[in-house]
Amino acid sequence: CIRCALLSSWRRPPVILGWVSFVLWAYYNTFLVILQESLQYNPVGLHARFEICDNYLKMHDLDQARKTLKQVVPFLVERSTIARYYRRMGYIYTEIGQLKTAYACLYYSSKFEEVQLAITEMEFIIAVAKARGENIKNITNTSKTVARLKDTKIPVITKVIATYDEEDADDDIDDDIVV
Fold first, then answer.
1. More confident site: 32 or 127
2. What is the CA radius of gyration of the chain?
3. Lowest mean pLDDT across 45-49, 67-71, 102-106, 165-169
4. What's the CA gap between 28 and 15, in Å, rounded?
């Protein structure tokens, strides 16, 4: 039963929460339980897994969000979901403060699908790096993108297996990324 699942699997709330924060935390936690239960019926469930990740991000539980994303990797076969995976990883690494890795993730995501959100996030990373007095060229050096991903044990996906657009099916990504 859902009530039993909610009671048994709720994560403990942070010690200090305001009323609104507690209500939001309870909402996200309830949604997590329901989404995780849905994976029993559809273990691949990419949409559910990305929603689980998003809820962990809203709860600022970056470790659980990253673990959820790692579970998605074997099922990534379409350009849009591969790009979404790298955008989420970029967001996590931005939050952690690892700007080089975050920029690499977002840049790599744009090789699969160009989305304004990724561009805006890369601009944000550059602004943060400037505010910190960091070398911008070191962060935005795209020739080291794959190496940065590998250094942080982020899987480097180089082939699109399936897509809704038949013209793109079984294509390698752009040749400017060297693995």
1. 127
2. 18
3. 165-169
4. 17
- CA–CA dist 167, 164 (Å, integer): 9
Q: What is the 3-state secondary structure (H, E, C) of the chain?
A: CHHHHHHHHCCCCCCCCCHHHHHHHHHHHHHHHHHHHHCCCCCCCHHHHHHHHHHHHHCCCHHHHHHHHHHHHHHCCCHHHHHHHHHHHHHHHHHHCCHHHHHHHHHHHCCCCCCHHHHHHHHHHHHHHHHHCCCHHHHHCHHHHHHHHHHCCCCCCCECCCCCCHHHCCCECCCCCCC
Nearest in space to 76 (alpha carbons), one of 37, 113, 121: 113
Question: Given this model, what pLDDT does residue 172 score?
Answer: 53
**Residue the block writes with tokens 């700007």:** 99
Rounded Cα distance, 153 and 147, in Å: 10
> What is the Cα–Cα distance from 29 to 11, expressed in whole angstroms?
7
